[in-house]
Specification:
Elements lengths: L6 H7 L6 H5 L3 H7 L21 E3 L2 E3 L7 E10 L3 H12 L4 E4 L21 E2 L3 E2 L3 H11 L5 E2 L8 E2 L1 H15 L2 E3 L3 E8 L2 E9 L2 E12 L5 H6 L3 E3 L2 E10 L6 H4 L10 E2 L6 E5 L3 E2 L4 H23 L8 E5 L4 E2 L3 E3 L7 H6 L6 E5 L9 E4 L11 E3 L11 H4 L2 H21 L8 H10 L6
Parallel strand pairs: 3-4, 3-12, 4-9, 12-23
Antiparallel strand pairs: 1-2, 5-6, 7-8, 10-11, 11-12, 13-20, 14-16, 14-17, 14-18, 14-19, 15-16, 21-22
Helix pairs in contact: 4-6, 4-12, 12-13
The structure holds flavin-adenine dinucleotide (FAD).
Length: about 450
């Protein structure tokens, strides 16, 4: 039986058949604006019944029964998290010949770079304005160069600023070109582990709780959600949690009226869109893993940004400036940091330490110091196998956190994790046992800079 309703039936059900003629006379564009004229259909019908997999309340405790999980997918390399590190990891692993799947909790790629509206790409250069972020990070920059309104300040020695929508578009293009399997709207909630070895991860989505099996998993969640669930050792840190916003009509400030008036705060700096700024609210140092704190930060920051904008608009000359949007994603900087086989240390910047297992070179936010090598060991958990960290959660001492987490440095560690995971999957070995020279060779073939 066809359960779908025709448009006429639908209008009759709603009792608005009288408007049908009027609706159909609308031009297509207007109809779209009215969001009308759709059809929907029933694909399945569920009777209400006791769900035996649901938790129950027993003796004052909530008990989750064990259950078999449906297998969603099987892959060589599973990347959890589609931010700057995760997308570089996925594309690099695929280009290195592995079958790759990337899973992201939100509906778009880019992580804090796009959803967090962190638009300034700091840290691709070092002293002397030498560019150390090459490979996939630089490929993205070059591709953004060719897109209208996607990037500004692409000059030697200057940190570029991007448009978040352009980056989201580019990342879709790159994962599709590479033929990476994608699952969006899937939240990684657990790791599948036997004897300290990770075999995949468990996800929650609108389709329920499902598993993906993999030969190697890359944790690019920024928060180390997967390696923590797998039982890897890590440090839990506090850092500033802020919220970025975009401000419009910056090109409509009445300069004559504004002359001599103190410049309002939190108006940020320019973006590729004329008249639009991005403003970075630092926020207090709190625990970015605590749900009550995250909730409070979202609500407090949003109130602060709105109220601040009302003050801005009351400032002579700034009446037309307005709040375009607050970022959909809260600005969580650092939470869990892996305890790895290696660790990025500040003294190694000063000593210009060279590592035999170098997999990339990090840059500085404003070219204030020289290049520093990133050892492969900083991506590899001490005890747990078949999982690698990439991005802001790799092993780095506290003092290095603000360098490691910069976007280009996340490109670099994501790129390296992707190649290493592909090599491990193809050679049938644990990531800790990969032939590092082989990883380094492929990274160089993929135009990464290793010093
Ligand atoms: C307010 C603020 C300002 C900043 N300013 C700058 C700056 O000016 N310049 C600069 O270079 N850097 C800046 N940074 C740092 C930079 O934005 C981040 O460190 C960088 O984006 C980290 O990249 P990542 O890929 O490691 O993690 P993220 O960007 O956090 O990406 C992680 C991805 O994983 C997804 N994810 C998380 N958990 C799960 C899960 N359990 N299951 C599935 N998916 C999951 C997320 O949705 C996200 O897409 C700033 C950061 C903040 C917060």
């Amino acid at each position: 039986m066809d359960d779908s309703l025709s448009r006429r039936d639908w209008l009759r059900v709603l009792g608005i058949s009288g408007v049908a003629a009027g609706l159909s006379s609308l031009r297509a564009g207007d109809a779209a604006a009215q969001d009308s004229g759709f059809q929907s259909s029933v694909v399945d019908s569920h009777e209400v019944q006791a769900n035996r997999a649901s938790p129950s309340f027993v003796d004052g405790k909530i008990i989750q029964p064990s259950r078999e999980l449906p297998l969603l997918h099987k892959t060589d390399v599973l990347v959890v998290g589609g931010g700057p590190a995760g997308i570089c990891a996925a594309v690099a692993a695929r280009r290195a010949g592995a079958d790759v799947t990337v899973v992201e909790r939100y509906g778009h790629f880019g992580g804090l770079w796009t959803g967090g509206l962190v638009l300034l790409v700091l840290g691709h250069i070092v002293k002397g304005n030498k560019q150390v972020c090459q490979g996939l990070g630089e490929e993205m920059m070059r591709r953004l160069d060719k897109m209208d309104g996607a990037i500004v300040d692409r000059r030697p020695g200057v940190n570029p600023t991007v448009d978040a929508e352009a980056v989201k578009y580019l990342m879709v293009e790159m994962v599709e070109e590479a033929k990476v399997k994608v699952f969006l709207h899937c939240w990684g909630v657990d790791a599948i582990v036997n004897d300290n070895t990770v075999h995949g991860a468990v996800f929650e989505s609108k389709s329920g709780r499902q598993a993906i099996l993999a030969k190697t998993v890359i944790d690019a969640t920024g928060d180390g959600d997967v390696f923590a669930a797998a039982g890897a050792e890590y440090e839990r840190r506090l850092h500033n949690v802020g919220l970025v916003s975009r401000v419009g009509n910056m090109d409509r400030i009445d300069q004559a009226k504004a002359r001599g008036v103190p410049k309002p705060r939190y108006l940020g700096r320019h973006t590729p869109i004329p008249g639009v700024n991005w403003a970075n609210l630092r926020g207090p140092e709190v625990d970015g893993l605590d749900i009550e704190t995250l909730t409070k930060m979202e609500m407090d920051h949003r109130k602060f940004i709105w109220r601040n904008m009302q003050k801005v608009r009351q400032t002579p000359g700034y009446e037309k400036v307005y709040l375009m949007e607050t970022a959909p994603q809260l600005g969580v900087r650092i939470t869990r940091v892996l305890n790895g086989l290696g660790r990025v240390m500040f003294k190694d910047i000063l000593a210009e330490t060279k590592y035999p297992d170098v997999i990339g070179v990090g840059g500085a936010s404003n070219a204030q110091h020289g290049e520093w090598q990133i050892p492969y060991g900083a991506l590899v958990p001490k005890k747990i196998d078949n999982v690698l960290a990439a991005g802001r959660c790799i092993d780095a001492e506290m003092r290095m956190a603000d360098l490691v987490r910069l976007i280009p440095n996340c490109f670099v560690t994501g790129h390296a994790a992707g190649v290493a995971a592909a090599v491990a999957a193809q050679d049938g070995c644990r990531p800790r046992d990969v032939e590092v020279p082989k990883v380094q060779k492929i990274l160089k073939q993929q135009e990464a800079y290793l010093g």
